[in-house]
Amino acid sequence: MLKKGYFMFLLLLMAVSVRAIGQNASGQTSIMPRMRVIVDNDFSGDPDGLFQLAHLLLSPSVEVRAIIGSHLRVGDGFDNSTTQADNAAQKARELVQMMGLKTAFPIMAGSNTAMPNDSTPVKSEAVAFIIREALRTDTKLPLYVLCGAGLTEVASALLTNPQIANKLTLVWIGGPEYTDLALPPPNYSTPEYNLNIDIAAARVVFNRTTLPIWQIPRNAYRQALLPYSQLLVKVKPHGKVGKYLVDVLEQLMARMKQYGLNIGETYVLGDSPLVLLTALQSSFEADPSSSEYALRLSPRITPQGTYEYNHAGRLIRVYNRLDIQLMFTDFFAKLELMNR
């Protein structure tokens, strides 16, 4: 009798747990935040940033404190305007509005230009916000700054107030391969794309601070391959958000075709690991336990945007294998639950 009662209790507990997960993805709050995040990305550039933002906003274990639209390199083909950061912030606002979210956090533009050198910070509302959030003493939730592009705002905040370096963790999509871990792809670019957006800022973060870094270099973020077939089946049919995300990507595919570029039938959603390494950490002994990293001495970034050995560098995490299945199945499920 006791065994039967215990079995029924377990069934009830499982039903409640499943229902709670569904409610959270639909906007409920039975899963509580266990970290604060500031999102800093070039949303007017590669559409992968918009996929990452939608996924993060559907993740109840993170408390989004701000969204920062950041600049691209001057003349970038995704957005060759002089208001790239402003445009990025506007793209983020449009997505948040489309998702029907009532937000208590600001959406702001960072600097529209890179740092002039590695000792002169830019000034912006975004830089000031990062500093204020890092210095908060009224919460015990750890702070992560998630960067899917350049490091202008983070570097400027560190130069403006160096004491914030031990009060946050940077999760950064960017940088070339570490040759002892992986080889670069064919016809690779130097410097790596995100590093090249603001080399001076990367030099500040890597060379001049003790900031904890979780780096997802090019060989790792290129693992985030999603086939077009899955976009059509798992994303586009699920509400106006799913349709919008795939439409933006299809518009890019059409543009590439006009320029004679054949990108095949997959797309690298290279910014989505920002969600994987934060919102999808393990239940106990919280960490991105299903992905793998190596501890490396932080290299020195040269003025040319390459690595140089630094025997005095602090240890940083360099991710070399990502749990892509967990990342994408969670995204698909949250999109579906949002539209039920």
From TrEMBL:
The protein's superkingdom reads: Bacteria
Q: Which Pfam families match?
A: IU_nuc_hydro (PF01156)
Show the SUPFAM superfamilies listed in the entry: Nucleoside hydrolase
The record, for InterPro entries, names: Inosine/uridine_hydrolase_dom (IPR001910), IUNH (IPR023186), Ribo_hydro-like (IPR036452)
GO terms (BP aspect)? purine nucleoside catabolic process
Q: Which residue numbers delimit the Inosine/uridine-preferring nucleoside hydrolase domain?
A: 37-281
Signal sequence segment? 1-20
Give a GO molecular function annotation for the protein: purine nucleosidase activity
Recorded GO CC terms? cytosol
Q: Which UniProt keywords apply?
A: Glycosidase, Hydrolase, Signal
Q: Which PANTHER family did the record assign?
A: INOSINE-URIDINE PREFERRING NUCLEOSIDE HYDROLASE (PTHR12304), URIDINE NUCLEOSIDASE (PTHR12304:SF4)
Name recorded for this polypeptide: Inosine-uridine nucleoside N-ribohydrolase
- The record lists the organism as Spirosoma fluviale
